[in-house]
């Protein structure tokens, strides 16, 4: 079975404003878009080697994938997205061909962007191989992702050919990445996507509040203060649980709006996934 039909996704209509906070991430990605279409003459005034590979890293559920989607929507670049694991679920040789075809098509329709989500699944450390070697042995392989990784690195190394193509990747396990991937000229622009800080959490709660039936007792500032350490995904989970609780009350003939108590219970019941070890990571 071929997974090629999965590769060219239509960008979901996520916009920068849908992401609460993360201003420096948005700034870096906007710059990446501009750089990809900048003339070589201008680039040479500012860069020895303009960045072309961007790695979004940080704990799970904190808007890495969203940021890539917003970049695609807002830039209008032709968008190719692939999950690392999808490339491994192919027959031997097929994933390498898929990667080469991906870059080829991205070049054909440039300006464009390629997004490798969960890149750690194909770019985990090549255990048993010397990291000083830039060309991994081709005797490994079958399911290990080594050949896919080699193909990816080869594609990234052709600089001229990649003009007009932004290559973006995301991982929540940066320590697991093969260092070869992070060398200059490859994914050498590291963008940390942190857990939402207090203003970002307030923005996420406010976004949800604007769309839902909220009781006047809902205090967004306090919710933001009370959710230190929660990911954006978990905050959305808290809001979803509060919505269910309010709906049940409404269905039983009670107060229809989402109340502060619903959200507070949501916070108490929401498990936190982010641990200290997941922060920064490099
Ligand atoms: P993973 O590493 O697990 O793939 P991720 O960092 O790619 O996670 P996303 O998939 O972008 O995370 O985010 C998951 C969901 O969490 C989003 O669909 C969105 O609902 C919510 N979310 C996370 N961060 C934010 C944010 N800053 N503003 C609004 N929603 C957010």
Structural notes for this entry:
The protein is an alpha/beta fold. Helix content is 41%, strand content 10%. It contains ten helices and five strands; from the N terminus they run ααβαβααβαββαααα. α6 (146-157) links the parallel β3 and β4 (165-171). α1 (23-37) crosses α3, α5 runs parallel beside α6 (146-157) and α9 (232-251) crosses α10. The longest helix is centred in the last third of the chain and has 20 residues, at 232-251. The two termini are 37 Å apart. The model is unreliable at 128-142 (pLDDT under 50). The structure holds adenosine-5'-triphosphate (ATP). Adenosine-5'-triphosphate (ATP) binds next to α3, α7 and α9. Residues 50-197 form the AAA+ ATPase domain. GO terms for molecular function: ATP binding; ATP hydrolysis activity. This is P-loop containing nucleoside triphosphate hydrolase protein. One of its GO terms (cellular component) is cytoplasm.
Strand content: 5-15%
Gyration radius, in Å: 21 Å
Low-confidence stretches: 128-142
Give a quick account of the main beta sheet: strands, pairing sense, barrel closure. Answer: 5 strands, parallel
**H/E element string?**
HHEHEHHEHEEHHHH
Strand order of the largest sheet: 2-3-4-1-5
Structural class: alpha/beta
What's the pLDDT, averaged over the residues? 87
Helix percentage:
40-55%
Bound molecules: adenosine-5'-triphosphate
Large-scale geometry: elongated
